[in-house]
Amino acid sequence: MGLHLIPLKIRVLHPGDDLLEAVLEALKEGNLKLRDGDVLAVSSKAVSIAQKRLAKLEDVKPGDEALKLASMYDLEPNFAEIVLREADRVLGGARGALLTLKDGTLTANAGVDQKNAPSGYAVLPPKDPADFSRKIRVEIFKRTGKKVAVMIVDSRVTPLRMGTVGYALAVSGFKPVVDLRFKRDLFGRKVRITRHSVADDLSSAAHVLMGETDERNAIVLIRDAPIDLVDEEFDSSMNIKPEECLFMASLLKKLEEGKEG
């Protein structure tokens, strides 16, 4: 059958707006009816705005560490301070961005972003995205009777690759990762370490249609996805331990070697 993705253009959201109502409005305007097994990919920024997760830059006083990082990496000091408050750890940076650890994920600027934010504000990452995705999924079932899945989609950069790709910040309604270990490949060899992040693949496909500027496609309807519906939510459980991560384990080792030297 193949995978089908349908972008849904929604109205410009304001802090505190009902995101579910905006989704249902977009479906109605697109003359679309949900089906069992559909996946709704929702922009993390839309979730943040609905949750009023914004910070006014002029109200934030940068501390010494923020001033230092802002000077090193060409950032607004107020913005750097917000990133420090949101990040679990700052690992370094490059011009215009800090490399941070946030909720077990390597990400730029701890998920804080000024793009598509009201003037003078920064948008913070969503609060408890797994619970938010669950509430949307449950409410959709109450209103439509359809069993769907919901993903909160954010964007990230990949080491040594140009440009952003989508990834799943949280998933409700299907298992995001398929474990392929101990299965056999085409030549009968046993797979040792491979796990397939279905949610991240679907998020990247949705991200192509969501865009990064003024598209307003904050919702993408994904149809005929190769998933099995489950009554569960996932967020940090999609992560792996830093010492098991190829990039993070190598980075931490180098940082420790630098301290010893």
Question: What does this molecule look like?
Answer:
The protein has 261 residues and is α+β, with helices and mostly antiparallel strands. The protein folds into two domains: 4-53 and 126-260, CofE-like (60s Ribosomal Protein L30, Chain: A, 2-Layer Sandwich), CATH 3.30.1330; 54-125, CofE-like fold (Alpha-Beta Complex), CATH 3.90.1660.10. 31% of the residues lie in helices and 26% in strands. It contains seven helices and 13 strands. The protein has helices at residues 19-29, 44-50, 64-73, 77-86, 129-144, 198-210, 246-260; strands spanning 4-8, 39-43, 54-56, 89-94, 97-102, 105-108, 121-123, 149-157, 164-174, 177-179, 195-197, 219-223, 229-234. The chain has a six-stranded mixed beta sheet with strand order 1-12-2-8-9-13. α3 (64-73) crosses α4. The longest helix has 16 residues, at 129-144. It is globular and about 55 Å long. The mean pLDDT is 94.
Poorly predicted residue ranges: none
What is the radius of gyration? 20 Å
Largest sheet: 6 strands, mixed
Mean pLDDT: 94
Distance between the termini: 58 Å
- Give the strand line-up of the largest sheet: 1-12-2-8-9-13
- Strand percentage lies at 25-35%
Q: What is the assigned CATH homologous superfamily of the largest domain?
A: CofE-like
Could you say how many structural domains there are in total?
2
**SSE succession:** EHEHEHHEEEEHEEEEHEEH
Estimate the global geometry from the Cα principal axes. globular
CATH architecture of the largest domain: 2-Layer Sandwich
Secondary-structure content class = alpha+beta
The total count of helices amounts to 7
**CATH fold name of the largest domain:** 60s Ribosomal Protein L30, Chain: A
CATH class of the largest domain: Alpha Beta
Strand element count: 13
- Helix content bin: 25-40%
